[in-house]
Design goal:
- The protein has a domain of 309 residues: Peroxisomal Thiolase, Chain A, domain 1, CATH 3.40.47.10.
- The strands form 5 sheets. Strands 3, 4, 5, 6, 7, 14, 15, 16, 17 and 18 form a 10-stranded mixed sheet that branches. Strands 1-2 form a two-stranded antiparallel sheet. A two-stranded antiparallel ribbon has the order 8-9.
- Helix 2 packs across helix 3, helix 7 packs across helix 11 and helix 10 runs parallel beside helix 11.
- The protein is 31% helix and 20% strand.
- It is an alpha+beta fold.
Length: 445
């Protein structure tokens, strides 16, 4: 008897597709009372693992730099998102086994910001938490890690996501512990250096992206970027008007010393009146003859997002419906530290693991760190642009570094569900020239 035949028989006995490394999606109850779409992996795996699902999630509105959310820490925002996710899921705080939250700017934030957020959300003190930093990839990597830990049998219920207050990032005074004998003293911007500076080329990621925009077949024009950015604002404004963010955003209440509290309910960065013409008059941001402007780059923002992840079997045990099954996860790096191609390369790798053609995906979310990233990755994948960022992206909504990956995972899952199910891919580029992607399967409704 061949090895694969033996494995197939074992899978039939256990109700598990051993080669996929997961329970067969066709055997899973979907969130709409149907079966999940079948997933196929090309990679042969011997280990038995379970199918992992996102039960629910929530995010805060996104605040502008020094906007309405400026007085809340990343952990404050994370606590609000986690509490919202738990309430939407029907999971009690004491049923959570582990919390994983991404946060990039941690100087002055206190020990383990993820644990601070967990406790703020009402999760008991005896539940451990992990803070991770993979720059813009932190939020999606937190969810992927939750998936992996559940499949490995380490935990049953994990809350994962990301949080960031870029407004509260401090300035750093290097060598201050040693003292200064003479001369001027220079402070370093924690946000700019630890969040937005490419260490390998010693420049901000904006100029790095600008350089790549002018390279050979990868060249991207100013007009293309202005059109992409205008569409992001217009799609996001329309989505808010149509209530398409209502299921994911939870309000943030900010108490005041006098008068009633401020209640923030919507993203602050969207400009519904943005057009190609209004963007065309903006000056280049990084060089006098450059193609990137403040309008075609994502704004500095504050916010948090979280999802509740568990095995499908655990969801069934608790009587919970779920919105998406987590599929393949892929990570990429190099060959240099540029950003434009990383989401496309990560999506292609994740799709290959499931024997999927990227062109057959129903929905794609690519984080809009810059318009050039969305344009280049869409072009390289050869997918229909109409499937990409259908409700706008980070250029309009904002890009809190540690949070964005979790936001687009949650939004893709909910949008696929709203559309009646399907298969989606979510991807981001990250500082240092890396990329992450995650495949999501939403059962037909």
């Amino acid at each position: 008897m061949g090895v694969l035949t033996t494995i197939d028989m074992l899978g039939q006995l256990l109700g598990t597709d051993v080669r996929l490394g997961r329970q067969r999606p066709g055997d899973l109850p979907g969130s709409c009372g149907t079966t999940a779409p079948k997933t196929v992996h090309s990679k042969v795996e011997i280990t038995l693992k379970t199918s992992t699902v996102i039960v629910a999630g929530a995010r805060t509105p996104l605040g502008r730099l020094r906007g309405s959310l400026k007085d809340l820490s990343g952990s404050d925002l994370g606590g609000i998102a986690i509490r919202g996710a738990l309430e939407k899921s029907g999971v009690a705080p004491n049923q959570v086994d582990y919390v994983i939250m991404g946060q990039v700017l941690t100087a002055g934030a206190g020990q383990v910001p993820a644990r601070q957020a967990a406790v703020a959300a009402g999760i008991p003190m005896d539940i451990p938490a992990l803070s991770i930093n993979k720059v813009c990839l932190s939020g999606i990597d937190a969810i992927a890690l939750a998936d992996q830990l559940i499949r490995a049998g380490e935990f049953e219920v994990v809350v994962a996501g990301g949080q960031e207050s870029m407004s509260r990032a401090p300035h750093l005074l290097e060598k201050s512990r040693e003292g200064f004998k003479f001369g001027d003293v220079t402070m370093r911007d924690h946000m700019a250096y630890d969040g937005l500076h490419d260490i390998f080329t010693d420049q901000a990621m904006g100029p790095l992206t600008e350089q790549r925009n002018r390279t050979g077949t990868a060249a991207i024009t100013r007009q293309e970027q202005d059109a992409f950015a205008a569409a992001s604002h217009q799609k996001a404004a329309r989505a808010w008007k149509d209530g398409l963010f209502d299921n994911e955003v939870v309000p943030v209440t900010i108490p005041r010393r006098t008068g009633g509290p401020i209640i923030v309910t919507e993203d602050e960065g969207i400009r519904a009146d943005t057009t190609i013409e209004s963007l065309s008059v903006l000056r280049p941001a990084f060089s006098t003859d450059g193609t990137i402007t403040a309008g075609s780059a994502s704004p500095i923002s504050d916010g948090a997002a979280a999802v509740v992840v568990m095995s499908a079997a655990k969801a069934d045990e608790l009587g919970l419906s779920w919105i998406a099954e987590i599929g393949a996860h892929a990570v990429m790096a190099g060959p240099d530290s540029t950003l434009q191609s990383q989401p496309a390369r990560a999506i292609a790798k994740a799709c290959a693991r499931e024997a999927l053609d990227p062109r057959d995906l129903d929905l794609i979310e690519i984080n809009e760190a810059f318009a050039a990233v969305g344009i280049a990755s869409t072009r390289e994948l050869g997918v229909d642009p109409a499937k990409v960022n259908v409700n706008g992206g980070a250029i309009a909504l904002g890009h809190p570094l540690g949070m964005s990956g979790a936001r687009i995972v949650l939004h893709a899952a909910l949008e696929l569900r709203r559309r009646g199910g399907g298969i989606g891919a979510v991807a981001l580029c990250g500082g240092g020239g890396q990329g992450d992607a995650l495949i999501l399967h939403v059962p037909a409704c």
